[in-house]
Amino acid sequence: MPENKKILIIDDETDLCLLLKEYFVKKHYEVILSHTLMEGTHLLEYAKPDILFLDNNLPDGSGWGIAPQIAADFPATYIVLVSAFHPKKPEMPAGSHFRIIEKPIRFSDLDKQFANA
User: Fold this and answer.
1) Could you read off the pLDDT tens digit of each residue along the chain, which spans 117 residues?
2) Could you tell me the CATH number of the domain that includes residue 49?
3) Helix 63-73 / helix 37-47 crossing angle, nearest 10 deg
4) Would you say 79 and 98 are in contact if contact means Cβ atoms under 8 Å apart?
5) Can you tell me the distance from the alpha carbon of 68 to that of 90, in angstroms, rounded to the nearest whole number?
6) What is the dihedral of CA 92, 18, 44, 52, to 10 degrees?
7) Does 98 reside within a domain?
8) 38 inside domain
């Protein structure tokens, strides 16, 4: 049996993290949660996820501010930038795989996005 794909969610909204985890576990993903940028970047190094959900406004910094560096360091990781505040889109490296999803997140949007993942 092949290994499950891994998702890392870096978001300080605990309820959202738990809902996303439940959604993706049902779809056979391994889900890792982090509520701070520092912890999340350490987990990123360790877990090397297939998909990263990265919130913009975190207690210890801007997730979107480091998104270009994450994309450069982990080019195989699909990055989902999440925010409720419509910030300016970061300048991502050429060829990086990313998408922006605005909060509140709808499961129907996730179904469309990850139907073939």
Assistant:
1) 346 899 999 999 999 999 999 999 999 999 999 999 999 999 999 999 999 999 999 999 999 999 999 999 999 999 999 998 877 889 999 999 999 998 988 888 888 877 655
2) 3.40.50.2300
3) 20
4) yes
5) 7
6) -30
7) no
8) yes
Q: Report in angstroms the alpha-carbon separations of 60 from 6, 45, 48, 65.
A: 24, 18, 21, 12
Tokens standing for 111?
């179904």
CA distance 10 to 1: 28
Count of the separate structural domains present in the chain: 1
**C-alpha–C-alpha distance, residues 88 and 76, integer Å:** 24
Residue numbers of the domain that contains 60: 6-87
Question: Is 27 contained in some domain?
Answer: yes
Residue 67 contacts residue 96 (beta carbons within 8 Å): no
pTM, two decimals, is 0.92
CB atoms within 10 A of CB 17: 19
Dump the DSSP string for 41-94. HHHHHHH--SEEEEESEETTEEHHHHHHHHHHH-TTSEEEEEESS-PPPP-PPT
